Amino acid sequence: YLTEEEINKLIIGKVKQQRQDRTRDMFLFCCFTGLSYADLAKLSYEELKQTPNGAWWISSIRQKTKVPFTVKLLPVAKAILEKYRIPANRFNRLFPENPGKVFPVASLKSSDASLKHIARQCGIAKNLKFHTARHTFATTVTLAQGVPLETVSKMLGHKHITTTQIYAQITNDKIGRDIAALSEKLN
Description:
This protein is mainly alpha-helical. Helix content is 55%, strand content 7%. Helix 2 runs antiparallel to helix 4 (75-83). It is globular. The termini are far apart.
C-alpha cells in the first residue's frame, strides 16, 4: 500500500506522457474508492448516483465476488471523475472499445507496466501495480483514518470480513494516534 506521503507524491508528481497521466488518474481513483481494476474498467455512468444533498456515490456489484458495494466519492475521486466526464456520444467515438464506460482504461498488463514508470518519475520506490490502489484505500485512506473494518469490508465488496483483515495493515502512525487517544481518555 502507499503511505499518505507517497499518495501526495503521486498526485503532484510530473509524468512524461498523456497516457501515463491517465493511468495515474485511474490508479488514484482506485486509491480513493477501493475499486479493483476490473470494477474500474466496467464502471458505467448508471452506477454513479447523486443524492439530493449533492453527494456522489458508486453503487455497483463487485465483478469478482458478485457482492453489491457502495462507496461515497471522496473529493480526489470526484475531481478525477469530473476531469474525464465526456458526453456519452463523444466518449463512444473517442474510445469505441469502452462504450458507455466512465473511464478509458488500458489493459491491466499495460497499466501495471506504466505504473512502474510513473512511480519512478514521482519518486516512489515501490513496485506499483493496480491492486496496490485497493490496499491503499483499505489501509491508508480508510482504516488508518479510523473507518471501522466492517464499513471498509462493505465498501470493498467482500463476502467475509476475514478477507478485509488481510488488507488491514495497521500502521505505526495509527497505533500512535490510537494510544494517544486512549491516554487522553484515561487521564
